[in-house]
Amino acid sequence: MLTYHTWLSKVNPSFKFLIIAVLFIALLTVHNLNTMIWITGLFFILYLVFNGFNIKLSSWMLLLALILAVLSSTTMIFFGQGTHILFKWHFLVISKESLARGCHIGLRTFLFSILSLIFVSTTKPVLFFYSLMQQLKLPPKFAYGFLAAFRILPMMYEEFHIIRAAMKVRGIEKNKGPKGQYHKIKRYAITLLAQSIRRAQRTAVAMEAKRFSLAKNRTYYYKTGVSSYDLIFLLTMSMIVMLAFVLSSTLPLTPFTNVIE
Amino acid sequence: MSLTNSQYGVTRLRLAFPKQKEMQFKDLTFHYQKGEKILMLGPSGCGKSTLMQVLCGLVPEHIEYPVKADEIKIPEKWGYVFQDPDSQFCMTCVDEEIAFVLENLQVPREKMPDIIHQKLKEAGLHLDDIHTPINQLSGGMKQRLATASALALDPDALFLDEPTAMLDPEGTEGLWEMLKDAAADKTVIIVEHKIDHVVNFVDRVVLFNDDGDMIADGTVNDIFKNYQHKLIEYGIWYPGVWQNEFGNKPEAADIFEGQPLIEIEDFTVYRKKTPKVHVNKLLVASGEWITIIGRNGAGKSTLLEGMMGLLPCTGKCKNLSDETDPAFVFQNPEFQFVTDKVIDELQYGLVIKKVGQSIINEKVNQALHQFSLAPHIRQHPFQLSVGQKRRLSVACSLLENPKIVLLDEPTFGQDAKNTFALLEHFEKLRQTGAAVIMVTHEMEIVQRFATRVLEIEDGKLKKDFLTARGHLLLNKNEAGMVY
Question: What is the arithmetic mean of pLDDT over A68-76?
């Protein structure tokens, strides 16, 4: 899935994960629309330059992030409270304040998506879980459990296609209406779940047959450690946040410095 | 009898499956010596696999069945290869999977790459890059990887639980060839239903009956000579089973109508927007039994699904019968089930076509008896045995008397008894003037039943010829032929 290897993929995955988690929480306290615009813009540039996806996947992901952002902002824009009315039609009221708040929420959604994409597009799942075990002492049964589940997902996707073809052959399409739809969804769910549960059970037994529970002190095939890239990553991320704060006070793009008021 | 140092096994084992009244094993005693090569045979569901899991300690330590025994002696180091090539791995890539075993054994990281290369070599899995995703391997290669990970445990004993059940003949032969060398100095205990290749490898055969009792224990010759009737009864694939069932010649040649049913011209089938298989010209007539053969990934199933209209395609593929839609049987019957009861499953196709209830009842009852499903009408299709599931899926497809039947490896993973029963159903259907088109790897079916063979290679129809049986039929029915 990762097409390119940028310097971000050399950062310790656990460290990257923690920094981004801290950013998530810190950014919840930002109510200044200008700061939000600058932060989002700068991280967006970071993503564009250093993400590891190919253009096609990257574009789809961005489109998805955009749709999420628009959806989360519209409710606030159309129905939020405010005194400076810009537009009114039945229940639909757009005020200056609600517009600013809506944009702020939309930007935050987009920013969180971008941060997640920065992480996902530069981190191999296998290395992430190896790092969680080695640096953050995650119990191996969770780490390998997740990794085994990763293997099952593409199989489920394949099975989904086969089931769709099989349902077509059996003529389940002829069942129209809500009842037919319910029946169809139920069939997909039962078949997919039954396959996955049994597969998971078999995988678990196979893992035990390879003496998984026996190991008290595991060794690791992939060694994940600390490197200078971690420092560079920390500096880059803090620089971006600081730069955004400076720019928002020197080059404010909107008059809304606090969307809560 | 108490166990000596070199002896392993169980003494007076009692084991019950949850939610079952009857005990699976009642005072079963089974011992073996270091270095023995043992094959366990028995009808499906007799508990052979469970016994193997007891012998290595997976039961009851990790699979918690109630177990009682006077003594269980487990080999110190053992490896286990399971039946399903897809669900015995937990990592994404080949090297990581073997590394997982080495990590469990706390092998230092620096030593891992060498051991991984060595174990892959021992298991005959030659890859340019060991960091290859497992889902890109064929079934046979996956089972080699499973063997390599078992060998990474440096075992004294290997337990092989139907390792070739999901492999085609080529993969099966290759795996046993490899195991002959790789497991030469180890104790090997095998559960297997296809025993063509195993017989030369083992020196002791143990036979179980339906109740999980050991009814015979002896050399290969002894068992195959004196217990052949049991092997037939249990549907085991022993050498020469086809001859015993059907004799030396192909099936008799009788009806061959020769009315055109499918016309194909310049037909291309696409998978994920890329053309996968192309057929220039093909005419299928009633009364034909066509087998599509070729290597894995050549495009056999793709052609079948294209003919059924399940994949995007260009060109002409016309159903000339106009009476009914073609019937299609998928490789995994479970995907095809759309209801929660065997009886509903059989009725489904007719009910949605609004056929009268009296006709439905008549047809369903007939099918229940024909396919020996009558005792199971209230069960959930998923609870049936492998063979019953397959019979149910075929029964559902044949209920509407289709003129064209497309089958994707219908006998795959089936025991001999079930395979023969299915083949007889297909033959009956063919005699009523239907065209049977099946993908198969089983050359016995091709030689004995098929009238015509289509060989697909790299997405192209390489050969299209009549079999001996096809020629016989042709001579009898010269007037009606469409060629």
Answer: 92
pLDDT of residue B1: 47
Q: Which among A167, A170, A202 has CB closest to B88?
A: A202
Residue A87: how many other CB atoms lie within 10 Å: 11
> Which chain B residues contact residue A150 at CB under 8 A?
92
Contact state of A219 with B62 under an 8 Å Cβ cutoff:
no
- Give the helix, strand, coil percentages of chain A, each rounded to 5: 70, 5, 25
Tokens matching residue A153? 């997902």
A contacts of B399 (beta carbons < 8 Å): none
A113-139 confidence digits (pLDDT tens)? 999 999 999 999 999 999 999 999 999
Hey, what are B421's tokens?
């029963």
Quickly count: other Cβ atoms within 10 Å of residue B385's Cβ. 14
Instruction: Report the distance separating Cα B20 and Cα A76, nearest Å.
Output: 59
CA distance B161 to B171: 16
Provide CB contacts within 8 A for B134, sequence distance 6+. A151, B89, B91, B92, B93, B94, B97, B142, B145
Distance of alpha carbon B399 from alpha carbon B393, whole angstroms:
10
pTM of the entire predicted model: 0.90
CB-based contacts of B283, cutoff 8 Å, min separation 6:
B260, B262, B263, B264, B482, B483
Q: Please tell me which residue of chain A has the smallest CA distance to B101.
A: A210
Residue B377, burial from CB neighbour count under 10 angstroms (0-12, 13-18, 19+): middle
Q: Residue B161 and residue B87: Cα distance in Å, rounded?
A: 13
**What are the angstrom distances between the C-alpha of A132 and each of A16, A24, A128, A224, B104?**
11, 19, 6, 9, 17
Bond into B260 cis (ω within 30) = no
Compute the distance between CA of residue B41 and CA of residue B56 in angstroms, rounded to an integer. 18
Question: For residues B60-78, b (16+ Cβ closer than 10 Å) or e, as one string?
Answer: beeeeeebebeebbbbeeb
Nearest residue of A to residue B108, measured between CA atoms:
A219
Distance CA(B439)–CA(B303), nearest Å, equals 10
Helices B112-122 and B139-151: crossing angle in degrees, nearest 10, is 130
Listed by start position, the domains of chain A span 7-128+225-250, 140-209
Residue listed under structure tokens 């009864």: B233
- Candidates B160, B158, B156; CA nearest to B40 is B160
Q: How far is A210 from chain B (nearest CA, A)?
A: 6
What span, in angstroms and rounded, lies between the C-alpha atoms of B223 and B55? 22
List per-residue pLDDT tens for chain B, 483 residues long: 455 556 899 999 999 888 777 888 999 999 999 999 999 998 887 889 999 999 999 999 999 899 999 999 999 999 999 999 889 999 999 999 999 999 999 999 999 999 999 999 999 999 999 999 999 998 899 999 999 999 999 999 999 999 998 888 888 999 999 999 999 999 999 998 888 889 889 999 999 998 889 999 999 999 988 999 998 888 888 888 899 889 887 777 666 667 899 999 999 999 989 999 999 999 999 889 999 999 888 899 999 999 999 999 999 999 988 767 899 999 889 999 999 999 999 999 888 888 899 999 999 999 999 899 999 999 999 988 888 999 999 999 998 889 999 999 999 888 898 999 999 999 999 988 899 999 999 999 999 999 999 999 999 999 999 998 888 877 766 544 444
Nearest alpha-carbon partner for B107 in A243, A26, A2, A220: A220
Query: Do the chains contact at A218 and B56, CB–CB below 8 Å?
Result: no
